[in-house]
Amino acid sequence: MGRSSKDKRDIYYRQAKEEGWRARSAFKLLQLDEEYNLFEGVTRAVDLCAAPGSWSQVLARKLRTKEKKEHVKIVAVDLQAMAPLPGVTQIQGDITKLSTAEEIIKHFEGQSADLVVCDGAPDVTGLHDVDEYIQAQLLLAALNITTHVLKKGGTFVAKIFRGKDVTLLYSQLRIFFSRVTCAKPRSSRNSSIEAFVVCRNYSPPEGYVPNMSNPLLDHSYDVDFNQLEGSNRIIVPFLACGDLSGFDSDRTYPLQLDSSKEYSYTPPTQPPIHPPYEQACFMRKNNLLAKEDAPAASLDHALSAMQLSASEEVDQQPSTSADQRGSHGINATDLPTLTEK
């Protein structure tokens, strides 16, 4: 399989590269905005679980227009550092920590956000019940920090897996938002249980005090106890959004879509810098994967050589200005990111 094979199999991956997006997920937020007009009147936005940065890119391009460029503030949060984006402040932190929420508010000079988005998802295991549970906990963690940073009347958009217990999540969201809708963008594969909840008009219960130490859902996750029935069962509207006559994310397309324009391969906008799988790729390439007769000394020597090589690459890179550095003073040009989400 050549490097163009994925361009055939995933038209949105190909378009993302051609249009300069870091990941195909950018189209999901763009299509959600087409339906819900999410960015109207927004001057302060937060992107949770932001890496590799495609949703932050969308926020920057849509919000930082010439007229209000100076007034817009965007904060991207992720445990994994990512390459810098113009007009986006990066926080490398944990969304379950109160200190992260406080730092977001600090960047907004004491004000709350108008919009919070989260495209975070776990590394799926293939065990659907496990994946759905972990995704639900991630969504609730995003909702929890959102209650600390979102202004009343604000909007929250997050990825959700539509599993058998999804009504339990809907009931939690309806406690804090008067309008909750489940949306499926055209760029989201039909074969995936992924969808997005669009929660508008943030209005927490009277007397509610945000608290990171208390989970919103119980930890027992008893199947019978958590099944909501009757008047307690929340059913939210489901909407397919995006141009329904546009590209099908599950379909394979020819490389040459336009007969008047010849196809040419486009590399990813932001290739990985030091991804988590870098060491595994190095070991495989050098035939160092676990073998019974492989001497430990040779493996340690090879890994040390790889780390030395990486450090030399960093030393050879040109220095960066202060606005190219992350919020913790990290050289942002050396930070890892991904090319697909």
Automatic annotation (TrEMBL):
Subcellular location: Cytoplasm; Nucleus
UniProt-listed GO biological process terms: cytoplasmic translation; tRNA nucleoside ribose methylation
Stretch list, region Disordered: 301-341
Domain Ribosomal RNA methyltransferase FtsJ: start-end pairs: 21-202
Main EC class the enzyme belongs to: transferase
Residues where S-adenosyl-L-methionine binds: G53, W55, D78, D94, D119
Record family assignment: Belongs to the class I-like SAM-binding methyltransferase superfamily. RNA methyltransferase RlmE family. TRM7 subfamily.
Protein name: Putative tRNA (cytidine(32)/guanosine(34)-2'-O)-methyltransferase
Lineage: Eukaryota, Metazoa, Chordata, Craniata, Vertebrata
